């Protein structure tokens, strides 16, 4: 290639060419570049090449860079050579110019891009990037796509999810090795290479010359900047400094890679060309600086091999004496020839202090062909050295990205992968030393996952570069650095070494990048085959696995509690799972077919060898050391899993891969030890070891670990049990569980190894273990789908589960490539077969529920498997939970009423290879145990439980189900008792042994035992045959201190063949007949207090079962063989009635099965029943029995009574909760405070919930209501259009708040303040639309002094509360509702009594006068009583509830008008909010949401008391203007010097109402109230007419003016809207109000002609809001019920309720609103007076005058923003959106659901005066309440004042589940019900009550 030749010409140590003349540099760079390009394009380009070479020498001189950095940092800082000074900039500029060859660099980039055959996306991303993974399209499990490619591809219906990248990654779109082509996006589908033109030679010619120099320059920099770190000083600082300086250079390279394929191939050439590298690096010549950097490079290289002196300790052997080469080097380098068995046992440790054991038989891999793994690295190309420095500098992100960006180039990909493998050992060493191993791990995996996921590539590298050897060696080497001596078994002489889980390497998971690479390459069939065929590798790998065998040993603490609980077990479990189990699953996934048998044989063979080595190394003979356990036996588990695979998939003969009996006995010991330890841990025998031991027991069975830990262990034990002698196995089990001594017929015994309190649970543990062992079929013949189904049923039976937790709980194969992937087809189909989906429901309490799956009825009926549940429960309570649910199902379906026992479930058939397992059920030892336990249970011995009985019956039933061979000659077996009296039972078949009677048993008991007294009796029959039958009993089941040989303690005789141990020859048995043998088991050493007794038993298993039936049922003779009545039963045995039930049912089922299996049993059962039931009159019940029966009956009654009481209590509690707590489920309750008014005046009586006394509220001891005051802006969010605003999801959509209620009111007030007198303006409107104070109560009352002491006690309470007592917050002592103040109750009657309500016959004129007088009286503040003090303090609280900006609207700060305005606005806010809670109208009548908990009455008293302090000057009292005519001139004169008052028609009538009422002395009289309402209605009606007149156009106005004028003189002119309207128009026409209308106005007015109906409707709608508020007020003040009505008649109903309608009013003709008018003074006069004020104002400001008249009074209910259906639309828009303050993308973006503002959660950039943005926004937008959707988490967070809580999510996935933090990344959809609940809580202000988990946010959100 030309480039290579040119480079050769350039390089070499030739003398430099004559330089360009100095001015040459000053010449324009572009010109130079163009000149050079031309020179190089000539056929003979030597001269050009040399010229360019010289220029580059100068520009990219290695002299300058970083030399200063070496001398000292000051120089660098001063901008010497090292600073990122002008020189570097200049160099980069030159490079860009030269590459472009004289043209513009940008045009050059564009030109190169045009030649990009973009077949691959290859976009590289770093951690935290949001990417997608589609399992449907992926071939490799690591496949990932960038968002753009994903959205442009078609993945509908696929199994995909979104995820946040942990380590970084790259987009695989277009790479058919990793994903299916169907999933490619539109851009990468086209195989575009064909239509892309060939790259013109001259375009990239300059690049080929310039880039090698540039890269060499970069490498020089890197060499230069590296200093070997001193021993103690970590050098990250220096490294980072160098990297910062090189930032622009690396970025430049990165930009080049982005130019596309053409440029990448040039770069590949440059990076991999060995000649270039050689020339440039060797041609250093006499350049001193370059030499120096080369030396640094060589020093850095030195440490890159695996063997350099630093690591003295290789393989646990010190530096050997000079004569022997280091063992490891020899081995790894393959010096030992073929599989050299290097026996190092004779080599002494040079330095014993190390104390690291030696290994016998260390087998080392000899297949490593070359030294390269061990040796120092040699670099042959730029790429290799670049990677070397990348590693040395600990993988800087920029370098990683550059190297990865190149990967779409195929040639580069191969070269880079080989280079990566070559540096693998070096990577490991750097990683181990690194301080930032986490970051570094992520970066390593970021690279390796791109390389090793590709099978083709992995295969190539495995073949050419020995990838497998390198990986295994490197892993082995890595672990060797942290080995310690194993203390398992024989501490002194143990030669086994294990990893130390406390080391950082394991604790911080530093090994995971290497392990994950290994797992990744093993997932490729071709690579795994190489591994499984290579014996040397397998040996090395087993060696590696054995480092983990027996790690993290636990020793049981017997005396003190352990001081320090080590947490190393996390590391140990993670290490076993990741380093041993996952590679194992990877290998197993390739052993699926018959052709792969050879692999399994290899693995099993080396596994057994490693196990044998291990047993030898720890000196294991036959007894495990007591009180120690390790949960880590990876070698056992490898062996077990490969056996299982061999039988299940490869049709291997099991016996061909099993070792001898002795090995099997050893193999079973440790897994059995773990099972026994589990029982010990759950029996609290390990409590002194702390909580961590429980943690280990739980982790061992936990879903992610169980199929790599407990399942293989149980399977291995099953295999051992099926091949070993059953009596030996059973006895070993009871011995391990330490319950041998318990299994005696005697009622008392001594247990030498177990405390009495642990006996019961250990016995339960042993029996449960046997049941699991015998009934589990996971590896014994179940298909994958059956396993999945069983696992799923077990999990669902424990609890209803969400879809994701099920996926998590079903133990999947930890290796992703292994078949059943969660979410796969089989998972969903099995799920739908066994479970029903329960959609999420909402309780009014607001607790959110997820969509759950619950088992179908038939699953409970047929598939509930308690054994599987016990095996899979992490917490013991889950077993109970499953049983409770099962019980509930049976009760509900009517199958069984009582407390059922776990059902017996039929098992799938055993695989023939494991038939031997069932021999356990048919061995005498087990039968003796079962017989003994049944007897003990029947005799009520201590330490037995129902659980024990349940398990005993389960085992008997298992035996009957799996009886080996049918008894051939039942009769024959009865004769000839002589030949089988050596033991208890004649044969080993359970079916026949069940009927065998045992008469006498000889036992050893303590002398104190009750049995001793009967000794004499027993001895008489001791010679009889029957007693001799049992004379060997103690030998079988009794363990004494003397330790003589018995079946259960086989220690002494275990070395003899164990067949002999159990089946002695019959001759020996005959010698035992004489009792003299007793000497044998009362050996000299035995404890003296034991004595022998002979018990008379005379029972068989069958008879014990029948008696047990009687005992359980509490009746004599309760069992009656069912077949006597119904012979059919024996023919068709499957009877559903026996499927579910308790112990009685189980016994009946067993007896039936026994009868079925043999005629003999059937006969015996009948006999026993006849014997027990003699056909005589019923036996008299003895006194003792009667006593027990009575006791039972009494118990039963007591139980029932208790149940009844509990039920009653529960219902009481429920009803209390409903009254006290119901938060948004209003019932039609009687208001708590307001009892119905009785005729006589009663004083209200209040109960104090603290002291419990009740009484009236008085001046000196006032009572108060528990209230919560909160600022609210909900009212301000009302809008005037119906459809709610949508959350913006594109840049165009924005929300402007100008149409909200708050904004409109603000504008109105500021308009008024511009033109009118301030004090008057403040009476003309209400505030509180934003930041208004809302008062709510739970309805409970307390004495105010009690409350103070309650607060005091809260203050002293150190417990962390969810609220802040200093701010006055507390919870109601009775219902625990959140509150922060107490509202005093005004002494006096409950409801303003009837006295005040009697209608008086005074005329309206009189009433008006009275009202005026009453208002005129100054409200003297009542004397200083406790009550008045409280009233003041609560007023203060109310003021402090909201921020100052929401209270101060006056132009003169602190003016009393402000307070006045604020106070009546509080009343307004509360009334308006109540109206909203009722749905915006009063149609529903009395059913008030706040009815029973309203505190408006009390609130009014407090407000009125304070308002009366500010008397309005009678001049200004609007009451005068409403009820009297004022003389003209008076109103005119004030105009000149000051601003006028607000005209009456601009006043807000509702505000006037509140002012008038609060100015009256309380309690108010009803007729005064009605009078005020009537007067105000006249004003309101006039306002409506004015507004109407302004709304319509000129023609309409003149028409109306005309028609109305005609009727003016009729009798009821004052009550006709036409007349009044025409009068209003004529009056206002005098002013300029109508004149301003230009043409544009008419367009706005609706073109619809006004009909009388539409006008009437307009007037009614205008007046309705006032009527509603007034009716509510009347309801609260006078306790009158609100009538309910239809929507269209609301106006008439409310007006008659308020007394506006005359009582005689008839409703035949259509209702006319004007008929409610009752004018206090002649209508026309007062109207013209009001209009005059308007006219005088519109003289000057006609526009504003009109605007103020049209009031929008019809506000719609407030709503939160409408959210899109799919969460992805929100996420994609907002998670990349930049913050408006700092223009960065926020880490935690959030969006306000009330107004749509985008905020940064916790963002420091947007902090203002220590308030973060969310908190600040919650104050501005919601007066302290904020509702935010967290974009990256999909959850909603509520901020309320100084507290916040996570509310939950309103987006659920297809299975009705939340996905907090988007961890699962499945598509989410809006859940409308949840959103409604959220909105409801916002509107009703109940966040504080419903959400329980609040915490302080300290302004940091």
Describe the structure.
This protein is of the alpha+beta class and 1901 residues long. The chain has 78 helices and 30 strands. It has a six-stranded antiparallel β-sheet with strand order 24-23-25-26-27-30. Strands 3-2-4 form a three-stranded antiparallel β-sheet. Strands 19-18-22 form a three-stranded antiparallel β-sheet. The longest helix has 39 residues, at 1183-1221. The chain is flat and about 125 Å long. The two termini are 62 Å apart. The N terminus is likely disordered.
Uncertain runs with pLDDT below 50, 5 residues or more?
1-27, 62-84, 308-370, 816-820, 966-982, 1013-1088, 1174-1182, 1221-1241, 1390-1396, 1487-1491, 1529-1537, 1638-1647
Strand order of the largest sheet: 24-23-25-26-27-30
> What value does the average pLDDT take?
78
Q: What is the radius of gyration computed over CA atoms, rounded to a whole number of angstroms?
A: 47 Å
Structural class by helix and strand composition: alpha+beta
Oligomer: single chain
Please give the alpha-carbon distance between the first and last residues. 62 Å
Please state roughly what percent of the residues sit in beta strands, choosing from under 5%, 5-15%, 15-25%, 25-35%, 35-45% or over 45%: 5-15%
How many runs of DSSP E, i.e. beta strands? 30
Sheet with the most strands, sense and barrel status: 6 strands, antiparallel
Q: What is the helix content?
A: 40-55%
Number of helices: 78
Shape by Cα distribution:
flat
């Amino acid at each position: 290639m030309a480039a290579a030749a040119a480079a050769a010409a350039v390089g070499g140590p030739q003398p430099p060419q004559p330089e360009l003349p100095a001015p040459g540099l000053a010449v324009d760079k572009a010109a130079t570049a163009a000149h050079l390009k031309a020179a190089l394009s000539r056929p003979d380009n030597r001269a050009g090449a040399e010229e360019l070479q010289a220029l580059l020498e100068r520009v990219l001189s290695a002299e300058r860079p970083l030399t200063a950095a070496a001398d000292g940092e000051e120089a660098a800082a001063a901008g010497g050579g090292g600073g990122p000074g002008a020189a570097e900039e200049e160099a980069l500029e030159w490079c860009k110019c030269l590459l472009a060859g004289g043209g513009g660099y940008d045009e050059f980039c564009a030109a190169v891009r045009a030649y990009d055959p973009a077949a691959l996306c290859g976009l590289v991303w770093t951690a935290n990037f949001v990417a997608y993974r589609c399992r449907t399209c992926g071939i490799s499990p690591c496949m990932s796509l960038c968002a753009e490619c994903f959205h442009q591809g078609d993945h509908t219906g696929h199994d995909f999810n979104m995820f946040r990248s942990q380590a970084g990654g790259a987009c695989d779109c277009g790479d058919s090795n990793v994903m299916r082509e169907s999933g490619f996006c539109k851009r990468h589908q086209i195989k575009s290479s064909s239509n892309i033109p060939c790259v013109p030679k001259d375009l990239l010619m300059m690049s080929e010359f310039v880039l090698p120099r540039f890269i060499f320059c970069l490498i020089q920099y890197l060499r230069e900047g590296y200093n070997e770190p001193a021993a103690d000083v970590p050098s990250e600082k220096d490294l980072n400094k160098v990297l910062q300086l090189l930032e622009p250079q690396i970025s430049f390279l990165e930009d080049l890679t982005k130019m596309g394929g053409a440029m990448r191939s040039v770069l590949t050439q440059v990076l991999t060309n060995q000649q270039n590298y050689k020339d440039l690096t060797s041609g250093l010549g006499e350049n001193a600086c370059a030499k120096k950097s080369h030396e640094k490079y060589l020093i850095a290289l030195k440490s890159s091999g695996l063997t350099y002196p630093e690591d003295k300790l290789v393989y646990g052997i010190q530096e050997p004496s000079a004569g022997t080469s280091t063992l490891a080097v020899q081995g790894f380098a393959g010096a030992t020839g073929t599989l050299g068995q290097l026996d190092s046992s004779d080599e002494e440790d040079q330095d014993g202090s190390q104390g690291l054991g030696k290994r016998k038989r260390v087998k080392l891999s000899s297949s490593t062909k070359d030294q390269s793994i061990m040796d120092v690295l040699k670099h042959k190309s730029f790429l290799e050295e670049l990677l070397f420095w990348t590693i040395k500098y600990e993988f800087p992100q920029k370098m990683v990205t550059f190297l990865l960006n190149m990967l779409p180039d195929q040639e580069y990909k191969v070269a880079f992968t080989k280079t990566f493998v070559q540096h693998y050992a070096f990577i490991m060493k750097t990683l181990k030393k690194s301080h930032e191993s986490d970051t570094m791990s992520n970066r390593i995996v970021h690279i390796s996952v791109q390389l090793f996921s590709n099978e083709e590539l992995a295969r190539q590298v495995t073949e050419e570069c020995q990838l497998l050897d390198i990986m295994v060696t490197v892993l082995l080497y890595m672990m060797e650095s942290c080995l310690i001596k194993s203390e398992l078994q024989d501490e002194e002489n143990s030669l086994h070494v294990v990893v130390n889980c406390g080391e950082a390497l394991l604790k911080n998971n530093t090994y995971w990048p290497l392990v994950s690479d290994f797992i990744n390459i093993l997932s490729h069939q071709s690579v795994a085959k190489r591994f499984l065929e290579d014996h040397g590798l397998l040996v090395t790998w087993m060696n590696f696995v054995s480092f983990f065998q027996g790690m993290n040993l636990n020793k049981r603490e017997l005396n003190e509690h352990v001081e320090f609980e080590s947490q190393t077990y996390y590391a140990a479990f993670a290490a076993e799972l990741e380093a041993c189990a996952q590679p194992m699953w990877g290998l197993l996934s390739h052993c699926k077919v018959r052709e792969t048998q050879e692999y399994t044989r290899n693995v099993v063979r080396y596994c057994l060898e490693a196990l044998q080595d291990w047993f030898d190394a720890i000196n294991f003979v036959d007894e495990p050391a007591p009180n120690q356990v390790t949960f880590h036996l990876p070698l056992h588990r490898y062996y077990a899993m490969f056996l299982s695979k061999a039988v299940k998939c490869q049709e291997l003969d099991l016996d061909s891969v099993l070792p001898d009996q002795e090995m099997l006995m050893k193999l079973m010991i440790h897994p059995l030890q773990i099972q026994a330890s589990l029982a010990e841990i759950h029996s609290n025998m390990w409590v002194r070891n702390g909580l961590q031991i429980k943690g280990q027991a739980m982790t061992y069975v936990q879903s992610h670990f169980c199929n790599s830990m407990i399942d293989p262990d149980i399977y291995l034990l099953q295999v051992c049990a099926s091949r070993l002698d059953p009596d030996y196995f059973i006895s070993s089990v009871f011995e391990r569980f330490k319950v041998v001594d318990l299994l005696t017929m005697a009622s008392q015994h001594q247990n030498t190894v177990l405390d009495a309190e642990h006996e019961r649970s250990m016995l339960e543990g042993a029996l449960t273990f046997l049941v699991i062992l015998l009934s589990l079929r996971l590896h014994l013949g179940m298909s994958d789908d059956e396993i999945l189904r069983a696992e799923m049923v077990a999990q669902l039976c424990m609890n209803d589960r969400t879809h994701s937790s099920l996926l998590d709980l079903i133990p999947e194969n930890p290796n992703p490539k292994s078949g059943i992937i969660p979410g796969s087809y089989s998972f969903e189909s099995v799920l739908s077969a066994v479970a029903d989906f329960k959609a999420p429901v909402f309780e009014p309490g607001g607790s959110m529920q997820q969509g759950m799956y619950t088992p179908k009825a038939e699953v409970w009926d047929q598939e509930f498997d308690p054994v599987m549940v016990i095996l899979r429960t992490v917490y013991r309570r889950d077993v109970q939970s499953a049983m409770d649910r099962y019980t509930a199902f049976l009760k509900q379906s009517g199958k069984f009423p009582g407390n059922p026992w776990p059902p017996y479930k039929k098992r799938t058939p055993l695989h023939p290879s494991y038939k031997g397992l069932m021999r356990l059920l048919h061995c005498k030892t087990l039968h003796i145990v079962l017989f003994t336990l049944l007897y003990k249970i029947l005799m009520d011995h201590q330490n037995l439980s129902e659980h024990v009985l349940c398990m005993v019956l389960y085992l008997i039933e298992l035996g009957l189900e799996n009886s080996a061979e049918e008894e051939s000659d039942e009769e024959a077996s009865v004769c000839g008792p002589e030949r089988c009296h050596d033991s208890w039972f004649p044969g080993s078949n359970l079916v026949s042994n069940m009927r065998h009677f045992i008469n006498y048993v000889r036992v050893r008991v303590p002398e104190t035992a009750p049995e001793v007294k009967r000794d004499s009796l027993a001895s008489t029959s001791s010679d009889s045959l029957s007693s001799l039958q049992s004379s060997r009993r103690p030998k079988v089941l009794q363990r004494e201190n003397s330790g003589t040989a018995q079946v259960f303690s086989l220690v002494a005789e275990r070395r003899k063949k164990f067949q002999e141990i159990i089946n002695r020859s019959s001759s020996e048995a005959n010698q035992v007949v004489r009792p003299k043998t007793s000497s044998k088991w009362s050996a000299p050493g035995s404890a003296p207090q034991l004595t022998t007794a002979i018990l008379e038993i005379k029972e068989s298993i069958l008879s014990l079962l029948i008696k047990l039936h009687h005992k359980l049922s509490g009746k004599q003779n309760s069992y009656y063989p069912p077949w006597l009545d119904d012979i059919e039963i024996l023919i068709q045995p499957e009877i559903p009635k026996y499927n579910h039930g308790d112990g009685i049912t189980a016994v009946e089922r067993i007896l039936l099965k026994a009868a079925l299996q043999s005629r003999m049993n059937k006969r015996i059962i009948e006999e026993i029943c006849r014997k027990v039931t003699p056909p005589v009159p019923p036996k008299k019940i003895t006194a003792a029995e009667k006593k027990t029966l009575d006791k039972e009956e009494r118990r039963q009654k007591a139980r029932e009574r208790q149940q009844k009481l509990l039920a009653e209590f529960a219902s009481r509690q429920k009803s209390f909760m409903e009254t006290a707590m119901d938060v948004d489920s209003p019932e039609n309750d009687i208001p708590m405070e307001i009892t119905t008014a009785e005729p006589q005046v009663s004083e209200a009586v209040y109960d104090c919930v603290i002291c419990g006394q009740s009484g009236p509220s008085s001046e000196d001891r006032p009572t108060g209501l528990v209230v919560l005051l909160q600022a609210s802006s909900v009212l301000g969010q009302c809008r005037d259009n119906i459809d709610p605003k949508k959350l913006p999801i594109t840049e165009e959509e924005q929300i402007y708040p100008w149409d909200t209620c708050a904004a409109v009111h603000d504008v109105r007030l500021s308009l008024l303040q511009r033109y009118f007198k301030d004090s008057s303006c403040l009476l003309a409107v209400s505030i509180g639309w934003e930041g208004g104070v809302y008062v709510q109560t739970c309805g409970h009352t307390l004495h105010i002094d009690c409350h103070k002491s309650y607060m005091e006690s809260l203050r002293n309470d150190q417990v962390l509360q969810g609220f802040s007592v200093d701010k006055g917050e507390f919870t109601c002592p009775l219902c625990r509702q959140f509150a922060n103040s107490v509202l005093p109750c005004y002494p006096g009657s409950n409801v303003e009594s009837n006295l005040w309500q009697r209608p008086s016959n005074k005329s309206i004129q009189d009433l008006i006068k009275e009202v005026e007088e009453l208002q005129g009286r100054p409200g003297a503040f009542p004397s200083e009583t406790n009550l008045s003090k409280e009233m003041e303090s609560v007023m203060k609280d109310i003021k402090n509830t909201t921020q100052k900006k929401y209270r101060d609207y006056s132009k003169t700060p602190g003016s009393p008008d402000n307070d006045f305005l604020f106070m009546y606005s509080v009343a307004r806010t509360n009334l308006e909010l109540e109206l909203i809670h009722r749905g915006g109208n009063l149609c529903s009548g009395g059913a008030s949401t706040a009815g029973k908990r309203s505190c408006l009455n009390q609130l009014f008293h407090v407000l009125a008391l304070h308002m009366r302090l500010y008397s309005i000057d009678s001049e200004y009292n609007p009451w005068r203007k409403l009820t009297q005519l004022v003389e003209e001139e008076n109103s005119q004169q004030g105009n000149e010097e000051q601003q006028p008052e607000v005209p009456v028609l601009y006043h807000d009538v509702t505000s006037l109402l509140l002012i008038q009422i609060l100015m009256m002395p309380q309690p108010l009289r009803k007729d005064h109230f009605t009078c005020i309402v009537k007067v105000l209605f006249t004003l309101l009606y006039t306002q409506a007419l004015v507004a109407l007149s302004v709304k319509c156009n000129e023609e309409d106005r003149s028409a109306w003016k005309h028609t109305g004028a005609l009727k003016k003189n009729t009798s009821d002119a004052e009550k006709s809207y036409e007349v009044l309207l025409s009068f209003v128009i004529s009056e206002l026409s005098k002013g300029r109000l109508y004149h301003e209308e230009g043409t544009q106005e008419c367009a706005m007015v609706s073109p619809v002609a006004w009909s009388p109906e539409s006008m009437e409707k307009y007037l009614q709608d205008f007046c309705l809001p006032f009527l509603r508020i007034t009716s509510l007020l009347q309801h609260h003040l006078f306790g009158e019920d609100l009538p309910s009505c239809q929507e269209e008649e609301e106006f008439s109903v409310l007006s008659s309720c308020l007394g506006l309608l005359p009582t005689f009013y008839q409703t035949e003709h259509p209702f006319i609103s004007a008929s409610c008018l009752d004018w206090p003074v002649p209508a026309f006069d007062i109207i013209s007076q009001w209009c005059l004020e308007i006219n005088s104002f519109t003289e000057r400001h006609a526009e504003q005058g009109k605007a103020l008249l049209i009031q929008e009074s019809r506000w719609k209910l407030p709503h939160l923003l409408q959210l899109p259906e799919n969460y992805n639309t929100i996420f994609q828009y907002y998670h990349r959106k930049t913050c408006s303050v700092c223009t960065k993308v926020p880490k935690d973006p959030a969006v306000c659901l009330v107004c749509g503002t985008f905020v940064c959660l916790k963002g420091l950039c947007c902090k203002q005066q220590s308030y973060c943005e969310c908190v600040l926004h919650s104050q501005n937008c919601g007066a302290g309440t904020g509702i935010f959707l967290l974009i990256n988490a999909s959850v909603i967070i509520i901020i309320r004042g100084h507290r916040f809580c996570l509310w939950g999510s309103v987006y659920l996935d297809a299975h009705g589940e939340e996905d907090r933090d988007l961890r699962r990344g499945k598509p989410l959809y809006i859940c409308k019900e949840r959103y409604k609940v959220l909105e409801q809580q916002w509107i009703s202000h109940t966040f504080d009550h419903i959400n329980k988990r609040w915490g302080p946010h300290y302004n940091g959100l």
